[in-house]
């Protein structure tokens, strides 16, 4: 085993004539917050979709704890310990916050249909443990006030936190956050930064994040990968990557030397 929680080795994705991801490699250590940045169309979401197995890589390999998961079926990803949130929130809108989190938690139900039908003590114990786990997440994310509210009636910022809670309810080793600050105001983005810090420090979960808000990126990321046109531009500490001439050029569309004071 490599010692990394996650590894991408030379992954590429071809859509017809377009190489959306082109020979991208990186490793993510356990407990790390690893952020992918880049201008629109850089290939960030496509990398996420490869990791969560929504897309097949045209070439390359992805490994979780040293295990090759390149060909794993999408429905098995959650049980392997990978959870994700989406750019556009995906929740059961006409269920309560608690129900949404319980649905997430139920992927770990280990009882079989017969023992469930008989409601044996083992089933009751498993159900109690799931509910306790979900209540801990509700506490951690300050969701108690919305616990029994329908998701559809919640403000956007609260729905974003519920989606994070639903992902945490699956007990992930690796959490993929797709633009966690999108649609949030400054105060809500601050809160999101706190949640991300708590998740990694208190729960020991590893995070791979796609994010545009550079304040959030600098605050929570251990390392940053910058992409443009499917390729890796730079990889390193947040301030190093943001100062990298190729990264500045990708964002502003002309060589960095024209704008960076010496
Ligand atoms: N299913 C698809 N079919 C065809 N082209 C696609 C598909 N998904 C993404 N692309 C293209 O691949 C390229 C990379 O897209 P991707 O969504 O990964 O970029 P991104 O960095 O996440 O951009 P954004 O910040 O705008 O979300 C784009 O040119 C996009 O149009």
TrEMBL record:
GO cellular component terms, semicolon-separated: plasma membrane
A Pfam family per the record: BCA_ABC_TP_C
Gene Ontology terms, MF aspect: ATP binding; ATP hydrolysis activity
Record Gene3D superfamilies: P-loop containing nucleotide triphosphate hydrolases (3.40.50.300)
SMART domains: AAA
Domain of life: Bacteria
Keyword GTP-binding attached: no
Boundaries of every ABC transporter domain copy: 6-254
InterPro entries in alphabetical order: AAA+_ATPase, ABC_AA/LPS_Transport, ABC_transporter-like_ATP-bd, BCA_ABC_TP_C, P-loop_NTPase
Keyword list, A-Z: ATP-binding, Nucleotide-binding, Transport
Keyword ATP-binding: yes
Name listed for the protein in its UniProt record: ABC transporter ATP-binding protein
